Amino acid sequence: MNQYLLSVYEVEGQVDGAPATAEEMQAFMGRVIALEEEMDRSGAFAFGGALHGPDAATVVRGGTGRDKVTTDGPFVEAKEHIGGFYIVNAEDLDEALSWAEKVVEAIGHDIEVRPFRATGRLQAGGH
Amino acid sequence: MDDVERAFREAHGQAVATLTRVFGDLSLAEDAVQDAFVRAMDRWPGDGLPDNPAGWIVATARNRATDVVRRERRGRRLTEQIATDHLQAERAPGPEVPGPLPDDQLRLIFTCCHPALGLEHQVALTLRLVAGLTPAEVAAAFLVTDATMAKRLVRAKNKIKAANIPYRVPDHADLPRRLQAVLTVLYLIYNAGADDFGRRGLRAEAIRLTRVLVGLMPGEPEAAGLLALMLLSDARMPARRDVAHVVQLEDQDRSLWDRSLIAEGQGLVLACLRRRRLGPFQLQAAIQALHCAAPRYEQTDWAAIVRFYDRLFAVMPTPVVAMNRAVAVAETEGPAAGLRHLDDLARDLAGYHLLHAARGSMLERLGRRDEAAAAYGQAAALARTAADTAFLARRHTELTPDQPL
Predict the structure, then answer these.
(1) In terms of CB atoms within 10 Å, which end of chain B has fewer, N or C?
(2) What parts of chain B have a pLDDT lower than 50?
(3) What is the pTM of this model?
(4) What Å distances lie between residue B294 and B42, B262, B264, B329, B383, CA to CA?
């Protein structure tokens, strides 16, 4: 079993998937909860959640032997930012992509799918 | 290409596909097959071809890959003893050699054409792994350096491994759109060979792979449609061009067309029409079949061709389809009507040499020689192959006013 990070990309100022009214918010939450339950039932759900916006981000800079500098703001100033993510267990990329399609459908934002590089711990649970 | 080389190439896709199924590792499979080929190169020219070259390659490569796995396991065991970690028992591949299954090859084609890979990576991988072209040949086919192509191939194989792109034919729910990618790659490979006489070997590879696909998926009319499209195009190739010349359809010597390829292509088109699930490749094949059916250019059934273009545009509304339709309309309604349609596309296809060539032809028929000359000149400047440039430049010169014929 492999793990994939499904990043939910939001674009600043773009309101495509964002619910506006109370009813829309309710419908949106209903879709998201249903999807997460489906992931959980099938054993795909490892972890996930929504992030606060980039204005809540803080960056720590400076490598070893240098003074650490803590600054306000996201690492990269860009219109696109990660609004949330899921980590899913999937047999292969196709399975991860099928979850990504469901997330796109439920949330209305684009998704980037990236495999975790296998570590000792992940391998122990797999194959 | 001599017999040994041809046998290599035909066995390559089968061997890589089978080894990938047995060992579950594309890179290991490719390396082992490569190794078997080196051994075959040593032996075959002296000993003669074995009865079953593909079987020989698969057996030799399997032994080689088994060695590699054993050695790696030994190395890992040492490391793991030092780390006092426990070794996960790894299943060694069984001693029996399963013969190459056509299904394995189909899986390999779908793996190479997975939509998670960029289109140029799909094409390169298909040529390398399935068609068995050497990396240098693949590089030459796409006019890039060996180093660029090597990087492209490595990157694609790394992504297959890292993202765990599955080695399988997609489920029926995903099949139509995945099949579309596979057919598109095969058609790109064919067209690369058709556009440039120096790369004509690609046409044969594309046809061979499409035949494999049609044999494995007899229920998929679009695969049959693509095969028909390639066969009908290939049938006319001898009359269409040689190294340096382009001969337009109306000037072609139809006695040079390959009748047996036309018969096979038309048979496939008829079978498609009967199934009534006409997709873009089948419709394009049907149009080509109508061209091939005309004993002389003047006897072409242009009205039927326009009808097929209407249906094609309904499922594939691209400017190039609209342009080809306009050329057919010029034959049924006259060059003025065709020109009106072309002018609607002028902005979308401003950089496409065939649009300007088609405009040149219609302006010429309307007696607007100066404008026709300008259009041919523009087409010549945009053409991508030497033969096309030479042909269009000649049309331009013939119509230029200060050089009367």
Answers:
(1) C
(2) 82-97
(3) 0.79
(4) 51, 12, 16, 17, 29
